[in-house]
Structure formats: structure tokens, C-alpha cells
Amino acid sequence: MVAALILREGGTAVEVLVCQRKPDQPMSLKWEFPGGKIEPGETAEEALARELQEELGIEAVIGKRVSRVRHKYRNGGAIDLQFFVVKEFGGALENRIFNDMRWSTLEALPQFDFLAADLGLIRDLSEGRLL
Ligand SMILES: Nc1nc2c([nH]c(=O)n2[C@H]2C[C@H](O)[C@@H](COP(=O)(O)OP(=O)(O)OP(=O)(O)O)O2)c(=O)[nH]1
To answer: DSSP 3-state assignment of 113?
Structure first.
């Protein structure tokens, strides 16, 4: 899996885009970072650019990989998640698949009910350790 930390300068602090899963999806209404599965033949960066085009309608410039997490969900299999920074993109952000989408400061991230696999990253970001 690949996911993006899409950043913007929010006046006084950096903000990151957070997305909420739909009520009818597994792990419904949990918050996550936009992204998805790497298809056969794709690099991680190619997969992420494709997912961001599909989910948000943007042409993203995929930056540095800042974190990698392996996690076992109780009800499912193990996942391997890689997070990349995105500081630039073309086009206008459009919510195509999420229940909700918001900009959050890094500090405020723990207030969102994130997927379990993301919690270590959320903590690092909110405490200023990663960005
Ligand atoms: N996009 C994304 N997925 C995450 C994050 N954290 C996390 O555990 N995941 C998990 C949830 C899903 O099991 C998987 C994402 O895969 P996906 O988007 O292709 O699949 P999905 O379950 O959301 O939906 P579906 O297409 O399988 O119906 O990775 C995250 O921050 N962003």
C-alpha cells in the first residue's frame, strides 16, 4: 500500500490533507491518508500518483518517502504501508470517493480517529518528529 501526506502552507502552520472512509467501506468512517494498492508492474510512486488522480483528481509530484509501517489487522491480513510527501500538484482537489476530507495541522492530527496502522505515524507527525 502507498499513501500520501499532501502538505500545504496553512497561514501559520503546515497542514496535511486527511480523508474519511465511507460508511459502507470496511473500517468505516475511520480517517486515513489518500492512496491505495500497488498494482503489478508499478513502482510505489507510480501507484500513488495513479491513486491520487483517481481519488482526488490531481496530478501529484511524489516526493520523499518518509515512513514505512507493517501492521496486522485483527480481522484481516498484514499490510505494508509506505508514506510519501506531496508538496506540489496540478489541478484542483476534488473529493471523489471519501465521506469527508479536511486540512489539519500536524498538531491536531490525533483528534481524528485514524486507522490503527497509521497511529505511530500520527504521533510522530503531531510531535514534530517527521516533518
Ligand atoms: N489509503 C490508505 N490506506 C490505509 C491507510 N492506513 C491503512 O491501514 N490503510 C489500509 C486500509 C486498507 O486496508 C488499505 C487501503 O487499500 P485500498 O484503499 O486499496 O482498499 P480499501 O479497503 O480502502 O477499499 P477497497 O478498494 O479494497 O474496497 O490500506 C492510509 O493511511 N491510507
So the answer is: coil
Torsion angle (degrees, nearest 10) of CA 102, 106, 109, 115: 90
User: Could you tell me whether strands 78-90 and 2-10 are parallel, antiparallel, or unpaired per DSSP bridges?
Assistant: parallel
Helix, strand or coil, per DSSP, at residue 42:
coil
- Rounded Cα distance, 109 and 103, in Å: 10
Residue numbers of the chain with a pLDDT score lower than 50: none
CATH superfamily assigned to domain 2-127: Nucleoside Triphosphate Pyrophosphohydrolase (3.90.79.10)
- Shortest-distance Cα residue to atom 16 of ligand 1: 36
Alpha-carbon distance of 80 to 103, in angstroms, equals: 25
Report the complex ipTM: 0.92
Task: Specify the pLDDT at position 87.
Answer: 98
Beta bridge pairs of residue 120:
none
For residue 117, report the distance from its CA to the centre of ligand 1, in Å: 10
Whole-prediction pTM value? 0.95
- Ligand 1 geometric centre to CA of 107 (Å): 23
